Structure formats: structure tokens, C-alpha cells
Amino acid sequence: MPGSESVQTEEVRARAIAASIMGVSDRYVGDAFRLQREDPAAFAQVRAGKMSLSAALKRLGTASGAAAKPAVRLAAFRYRVIGISI
Fold this sequence. Notes:
By secondary structure, the chain is mainly alpha-helical. The chain has one domain (1-86). Helices cover 59% and strands 0% of the residues. It has helices at residues 4-22, 26-38, 40-47, 53-63. Helix 1 packs across helix 2 (26-38), helix 2 packs across helix 3 and helix 2 crosses helix 4 (53-63). The longest helix has 19 residues, at 4-22.
């Protein structure tokens, strides 16, 4: 899609500028934006100082269910990997 890289770059720059102004990380700003988009009521509570952003994000994570961010378990490797060149 033409221009999509430009839009993404602008969003990243805007997030970095906002983070710099507020004295927080750009990840924190991105998390707040996601919360505003996905749970406006929780965002309003965070903005009013009634809930922390991390608590709201935890609530958002549990409300969206396990399908949104599945837990991944890595299998223990029991076998050695043998390289074979032909």
C-alpha cells in the first residue's frame, strides 16, 4: 500500500515527541493510545487519576481474553541437533 510506511513513520515520530514532552517512554504513550482506542471508559479513569495505566492495561488484557495474547511455552529440547552437510 503506497504511503503506509510514511504514515507509520509519522505516527512513531509523533509518539516519540509526545513522550519527550511528557517525560515518559514512547511505549507508555503507545500503550495509552491503545487503551483509549480499545477501552475508552478505562482510559477516562486513567486520565482522571482514578486508575494507573498499568492496572488499566492489565484489565484490558484479561477482558480481551487469552486469544489476544496467548501464553507460549517453549518445549524443553531433549535432543541434540546434528548438522548434516551433503
